[in-house]
Description:
Layout: H1 5-14, E1 29-35, E2 42-48, H2 77-88, E3 96-100, H3 113-122, E4 129-134, H4 141-144, E5 154-161, H5 165-172, H6 178-190, E6 194-201, H7 208-222, E7 228-233, H8 241-247, H9 256-266, E8 272-274, H10 293-305, H11 309-317, H12 321-331, H13 339-348
Parallel strand pairs: 2-3, 3-4, 4-5, 5-6, 6-7, 7-8
Antiparallel strand pairs: 1-2
Helix pairs in contact: 2-3, 7-9, 10-11
This protein binds iron/sulfur cluster (SF4).
Amino acid sequence: MQVNRQLAESVRELMPNRRNNGQNNRPVSFWKEMDRLSGGPEKTAVVIFRTKGCSWYNFSSCSMCGYFNDVSDSVTAEDLKKQVDYILDQLDDIKSIKVFTSGSFLDPLEVPIDVRNYFMSHVGERMSRILIESRTEYLTGRNLENLKKYADSIRIAIGVESTNDNIIANSINKGTSYTKFVDAAKTAREMGFETRSYLLLKPPFISEKSAIEDAVRSVSMVAGYSSDVSINPMNIQRNTLVEKLWKNGQYRPPRLWSLADVILRSTEFGTEVVSYPTGGNRERGTHNEVPDPRLLELIVDASLRQDFSELRRYFENADLTGYREELESEAAQPYQVDFRRMTNKISSGSFFV
Ligand code: SF4
């Protein structure tokens, strides 16, 4: 596994020291949204448990990840059980839940085994589908053993981000590798778990044109190890390296056209491909130069139904000349800049201060 220590240090410097945010016995958030964990669109609960956070934070963080803004160093196992109790009454007749933790549900230091069991016996038993997230290092036979009896109902989401180890190390600072992902996914699938692979569209330091090619290639490589692939276009989170670059005009989130392009080209790889962009059509999320609510709606709808015909029609009938010219001109630059943001900064005088 490759680690770029200089990059890791730059990311680390931006992370806040104080890590006691919010009430320890309440989740960061809980809501309901649509997903298709059981093979068709259905209402799905989503919870973000407040934990001590990702083990990678002890060293650094991924360059785009600001989940450390929500963690608390003082959360105890009892607090976590209270957070589980808190969501119990709100589940109604929901049958699927996505569990996020600002880290790894399978890291026993972040979510102790007895909390994991408590969650499964109180919430998991009521669900037909549960999505949990984990870094690759926690996907071992031993660590998964006590969840094996629930394997049929669990999909484990793994942040692969890219299958290019150079991008993983020098752009994302993920602290893992493609080989580790393959080993982890094989272990999980051999034990009967489903897997969702997360891919990041447009990591920093590469052009949008290269990012599209990287994402499509990555889908083709993870497809055989994934029940589905979730394409996550970059969204700018607080106190991250990506936010710093973005504020300086040195990074622009990917266009919605690029996301549509990746999705449409990825449908041929034999796995389900979904994308539910965070912050879509907003400045910090995936957006075209002119907001396009219809395109965003088509992307989400195609993801939910796995029917890409309308999205394809919209994409193929659009005039993409200006978009393609922008991608070409960006790709020709030695540094990836956000021209509009940079121009605004220069004209306001704030670029030189
Ligand atoms: S592994 Fe996940 S939670 Fe941990 S720093 Fe990276 S993106 Fe954030």
